[in-house]
Design a protein that fits this description.
Helices cover about 40% and strands about 25% of the residues. It is an alpha+beta fold and about 110 residues long. The chain has helices spanning about 1-5, 15-25, 35-55, 105-110; strands spanning about 65-70, 75-85, 90-100. It is elongated, with a radius of gyration of 20 Å. It contains four helices and three strands; from the N terminus they run H-H-H-E-E-E-H.
């Protein structure tokens, strides 16, 4: 799944015979999963991620979410999701939920 996503290969291209033959020419033991298998795996990973985020957040407090983005000196575009809430003594607490490089194609699209 990661290979398909990171190379921007749509899942509906996986059943394509030419694509499968080209991958098998590179790695004969490779078995490409079906689109339904990928979809089920993605749904499972999504549910696990949501559960993991919920465990990081306090159950009683209201939480504010912030999206932060910046560009590094070597032109990498980074985004981060941060959750903020208050301790009972009114001290601010923050938890970074996500930190990822953003695809340059996506950045170009957003700037348009």
């Amino acid at each position: 799944m990661l290979g398909c996503v990171s190379h921007h290969i749509p899942w509906n291209a996986i059943p394509n015979l030419e694509l499968q033959l080209s991958y098998n020419a590179l790695w004969s033991e490779l078995v490409l999963p079906s689109t339904s298998t990928l979809s089920n795996h993605c749904q499972r990973e999504y549910s696990l991620t949501v559960d993991a985020i919920k465990k990081q957040l306090p159950s009683q407090n209201k939480v504010s979410l912030a999206l932060d983005g910046w560009t590094t000196t070597n032109k990498l575009v980074i985004s981060s999701v941060i959750a903020y809430d208050m301790y009972p003594n009114w001290a601010l607490r923050d938890e970074q939920l996500s930190f990822e490089e953003v695809d340059n194609l996506l950045v170009s699209y957003i700037k348009c």
